[in-house]
Amino acid sequence: MLRLTVGAEDYLKIGEDIKIVFLGGSKNHLRIMVDAPKELNVVRSKVIENNTTDPQEKEKLPHYYAVPDLPEKYRKKKVVVNDAVRLAGRKAGNSAR
């Protein structure tokens, strides 16, 4: 299993004739383009899951999930602003007018 962080217009090559291009996206969605020969089947997981009726076969299907939180070393640093100091500065500026 390979897990990557990619940017818009980055791509992966699989073998000589398969290319997966990452086109960008939003917070919850990602747009990709799969460039593969017509002889290969490219099927979404939802189609496979919906067409599988046997419960035992459904259990065998792979399930992937997003990691809810990144480890601390990959998180952006949060800047904490002391609201009391900021509000005191505003009140002092208003009383001078």
Strand-helix topology:
Layout: E1 11-14, E2 18-25, E3 30-35, H1 45-51, H2 55-60, H3 83-95
Antiparallel strand pairs: 1-2, 2-3
Give the biggest sheet.
3 strands, antiparallel
Task: Figure out the total of helices.
Answer: 3
The residue ranges in which pLDDT falls below 50 over 5 or more consecutive positions are none
Strand portion? 15-25%
Distance between the termini: 64 Å
Within the largest sheet, what's the order of strands?
Answer: 1-2-3
Shape: elongated
Short description:
The protein is α+β, with helices and mostly antiparallel strands and 97 residues long. The chain is 27% helix and 19% strand. It is built from three helices and three strands, in the order E-E-E-H-H-H.
Describe this protein's structure:
The chain is α+β, with helices and mostly antiparallel strands. It has a domain of 58 residues. The chain is built from 3 helices and 3 strands. A 3-stranded antiparallel sheet has the order 1-2-3, with no helix packed on it. A hairpin with a 4-residue loop joins β2 and β3. The longest helix is centred in the last third of the chain and has 13 residues. The radius of gyration is 24 Å and the shape is elongated. The termini are far apart. The mean pLDDT is 80.
Keywords:
elongated, three-stranded antiparallel β-sheet, single chain, 97 residues, alpha+beta
